[in-house]
Design brief:
Oligomer: single chain
Number of domains: 2
CATH architecture of the largest domain: 3-Layer(aba) Sandwich
CATH topology of the largest domain: Rossmann fold
Strand content: 15-25%
Largest sheet: 7 strands, mixed
Strand order of the largest sheet: 3-2-4-5-7-6-12
CATH superfamily of the largest domain: Thiamin diphosphate (ThDP)-binding fold, Pyr/PP domains
Number of helices: 11
Order of helices and strands: EHEHEHEHHEHEHEEHEEHEEEHEHE
Amino acid sequence: MHTIATGNRGVAEAVREAKPGVVAAYPITPQTEIVELIAQYVAQGTMQATYIPVESEHSAMAACIGASATGIRTFTATSSQGLLYMHEMLHWAAGARLPIVMANVNRAVAPPWNVWADHTDALSQRDTGWLQVYVATAQEAYDTMLMAFRIAEHEDVLLPVMVNLDGFILSHTMQPLETTPAGDFIPPLSLPHAIDIKDPAAYSPLTGPEYYFGFRWEIERSMRDARQVIREVEEAFAGKFGRRYGPVEEYRTEDAEVVIVAMGTLGREAQVAVDRLRQEGIPAGAVRLRWFRPFARPDLAGREVVVIDRDYSFGFGGVLAHSLRATTPCNPYSVIAGLGGQEVTYADIAQFVRQRKPGEEFWFGVESHGDV
């Protein structure tokens, strides 16, 4: 079905198609519309699920953990401070190898209070063991949510997945959306370590030094295996629905001498900047990083790189810029822009490229800046 919808509605429609057994929810701007829509679907009988309205985001994730541990498909959604409130339980979900899927509508972290787009909320949780993917359109939000359940529940992964979409810029913007019955695209969940009341077993919460590291390694091994699973699921999705995705989205990179790298909606805005720069004779291209965990490693060898971070790790730098430094042969011009919903246009991005100085860090809107 073709319609016009917000990114939030795209997420909700995909969740309905995925048929989770339990949805635990707590409202927070700008995510609230997702769980409101799902609540309506359940109340109207168009979605068969147990909907649990809880008293906090910490409880929402705890409820998902309890349900998932019994082998039930689960979903929740949050944003910003709500994601931070879940922090402890995010570690539990990944450590218990539970394939929970969550939508996080990216929003700045307080103080000061700000409800606009910023990637710091999700990137601050990058080491919890969750897979993270960043989308740029309502269609991509819908499609990626469908794929997220299949990826999370794959026997070689069994880790939770966080689907991230920029607050208001995407969550509340109306865009074309094609929804399609998922059919058998998402197979039934089979959790090998599900709790079974007919076969009681004890789960020990304490693991000594001789075994603990092994559990950590198993998470890392599954993160590595997830790369291949993601490729397979995205290929299967393209075969069934005709829309193709990858760990990164490249735009006019074949002959590019300078490449703009960004995530989310800024990655799409960068493509317009590339067209403008090409008209000026600057051989620019753009790479939109979709998968941050496991980290996608774009081919940047031999190119100048301009990285736009809608985040910052204080005392360290832009998270994406430093991640690329650590994993690819590049020394990027690191631009910090878009924090708290700061407007960043294609014209601004084109100017970042014109003024680039490899190895330096630049804060958009701040007069002084220095080396990384």
